[in-house]
Amino acid sequence: MEKVYAMHITEGILPPQWVFTWFAVSAPFVGVGIYQVKRKKKTVPGYLPLTGMLGAAVFVFSCFPIPVIALNGMATSHPCGTGMSAVLLGPFVSVFIAAIALLIQALFLAHGGLTTLGGNVFSMGILGSFSGYFAFKTAQRCGLSLFWCGFLAGVISDLFTYFGTSLELGLLVIYKGGSFFRAVAEIFGMFMMTSQGVLCIVEGIVVGFVLVFIYKRRPGILLNLGIIRDDTKPIQV
Fold it and tell me: What is the DSSP string of 159-186?
């Protein structure tokens, strides 16, 4: 049982039908992400180097293991980074970046797995990226400062990533006669009661400060990406 509580679903956990299902769901998003990278690198100055830099950040964030104390060290958790990449590059490109990071981790670090790659891309890439992106846009429309927009993007992205993993694992109990909703609630609750609850806040703060830092040093980057307008007023805390 210790394997399934890790942020990345471990190799061999998912049965074949779910392996193919999550690959089928995730593949179109990755494909659109690849297309957008090819298109935007021709129109946005410095887009490709920025994509590579954020890809490296997502890789480092998501392979940094933190013990889950409640499980006596039997599992680890980690930040995600997809909230930040979704805000800066868009959700589809963020899914593509997450897929590359997860593939490298599965091949060389035994973190996650190849058969669970589709499922991990769904939770960390798709749910994490799109939830963080829409949280940022919603906060902007509400008139929040750049820091708080980034903060909410980081927090919401993590929460949806954890929920996605809980959902995928909860589906497995159906075949054993268990309660799907109870399983999802228990797994998600385990995430929140251990290190992930703190990680949500920490990652939100990191994303907020990164956006403010870029705005103060190189505001043209955010302007070229269409993230801010000239009247944006970031506030640090």
Answer: HHHHHHHHHHHHHHGGGGT--HHHHHHH
Q: Give the global pTM.
A: 0.86
CA-based nearest residue to 139, from 204, 89, 44, 188: 204
Integer Rg of the chain from CA: 18
CB proximity list for 26: less than 8 A, separation 6 or greater: 95, 99, 118, 121, 122, 125, 126
Q: For residue 70, give the DSSP letter.
A: G
Tokens encoding 78: 């980690």
61 near 210, Cβ under 8 Å? no
Give pLDDT tens digits for 118-172.
Answer: 999 999 999 999 999 999 999 999 989 999 999 999 999 999 988 888 888 888 8
CB-CB neighbours of 221 under 10 Å: 18
Interatomic CA distance for residues 37 and 28, integer angstroms: 14
Residue in this structure with the two tokens 């990406």, named with its chain if needed: 225
DSSP assignment of 95-158, as one string?
Answer: HHHHHHHHHHHHHHS-SS-STTHHHHIIIIIIIHHHHHHHHHHHHHHTT--HHHHHHHHHHHHH
Residue of 67, 63, 55 lying closest to 98 (CA atoms): 55
Tokens of 93: 């490109």
